[in-house]
Structures are given as structure tokens and as C-alpha cells.
Design brief:
The protein is mainly alpha-helical. The chain contains seven helices and two strands. The chain has helices at residues 2-9, 15-18, 21-45, 70-93, 103-127, 131-162, 169-174, and strands at residues 49-53, 62-66. Strands 1-2 form a two-stranded antiparallel ribbon. Helix 3 runs antiparallel to helix 4 (70-93) and helix 5 (103-127) runs antiparallel to helix 6. It holds the Pfam family 7tm_3.
Length: 175
């Protein structure tokens, strides 16, 4: 939204007419509604169910979640991947904003690591069976969450806790 706002403010920009306040406020609800609709269709047509898997390890029965419809599951993952890709592109474009928006560089890097984590997750997810699959899913979720938290919030904590002189309004206005 910030990138669109800065580009719309340029003199002679065609975006100025296209981008209104209502447009910027409807982006998140519309994309969230699309996600909810895709998930609702998946859960309504072929919901996930419990599956007892005893072939991967002899003598052990593993209870796992069967995805139901592979097509619907792929659509959900594909849409989430599209949202992540769009977020990465917007964060990449926001790197050139004025200095008061410098966290865009950290968001860009964290989105890059987030994308690489989930790109490596997909082939591993489809080739693993049994208890290792659950552990790998948990590790991917924790790794991507830790990456986002680290690169976005640690930098802010550094300024707030260790460099409080930079955390004043006057310092931001000088930039």
C-alpha cells in the first residue's frame, strides 16, 4: 500500500486516479475473502480426515491427516504461495522508499528467506512418510516464523533498547 501511495503521488502519475483510499483499504479483506472461499470449497467438497498409516514403519500405526482432495489442497497452497510472492515483490519495490521506511529492506530479506524455506518444504513434504513428515512440517513452520520475527522485529528492538537516541521524532524528521 505504501508503494502504491508513493507512486500515486508522483506528478503526472496514472495511478493517482486508480488508487483511492477505498482501494487501499479493500485489498486485505478481498484477498482474505478469496482465501476463505478457497478453503471453504475445499472443506465443503472433500475435507481432510484421519488416516491410519501402517506401511512406513512395521509394527507401528501412525495416525495422520489425509488431505482429502489433492487438487483443493494444491489450490490452497498455490494461492498462499501467490500471496507470498506478491508480498515479496511489493517489499522488494519498497526498498527504494525514503529512509523512514528502512524496515522494507528487512521485510524483503525476511520474505526471501521465507520463500526459500517453503520452496524447499514442498518437495520434502511430498517425499517424506511417517513421523519424519510431521517433524519436517513443524520444523518448516518454526523456521519460517523465526525468520520473519528475527529479521523484522530484532532490528526494531535494537533501536528501541540499544540506540534510544535514534528512536525520537526529531531523528526521523532529519532523514
Amino acid at each position: 500500500m505504501v508503494v502504491l501511495a508513493f507512486r500515486a503521488k508522483k506528478p503526472g502519475s496514472r495511478l493517482r486516479m486508480c488508487v483511492a483510499r477505498t482501494t487501499l483499504k479493500t485489498i486485505v479483506p478481498v484477498y482474505s475473502q478469496i482465501q476463505a472461499t478457497i478453503c471453504g470449497i475445499w472443506l465443503g467438497t472433500s475435507p481432510p480426515f484421519l488416516n491410519k498409516e501402517s506401511h512406513s514403519e512395521p509394527g507401528v500405526i501412525i495416525i495422520e491427516c489425509n488431505k482429502g482432495s489433492i487438487t483443493a489442497y494444491s489450490c490452497v497452497l498455490g494461492y498462499m504461495g501467490l500471496l507470498v510472492l506478491v508480498s515479496f515483490i511489493v517489499a522488494f519495490l519498497a526498498r527504494s522508499l525514503p529512509d523512514t521506511f528502512t524496515e522494507a529492506k528487512f521485510v524483503t530479506f525476511s520474505m526471501l528467506v521465507f520463500c526459500s524455506d517453503w520452496i524447499s518444504f514442498l518437495p520434502t513434504h511430498h517425499s517424506t512418510k511417517g513421523k519424519a513428515k510431521v517433524a519436517m512440517e513443524i520444523f518448516s513452520i518454526l523456521a519460517s516464523s523465526a525468520t520473519l520475527c528475527t529479521f523484522i522485529f530484532i532490528c526494531k528492538c535494537y533501536v528501541i533498547l540499544l540506540r534510544p537516541e535514534k528512536n525520537v521524532e526529531g531523528c526521523l524528521k532529519k532523514r
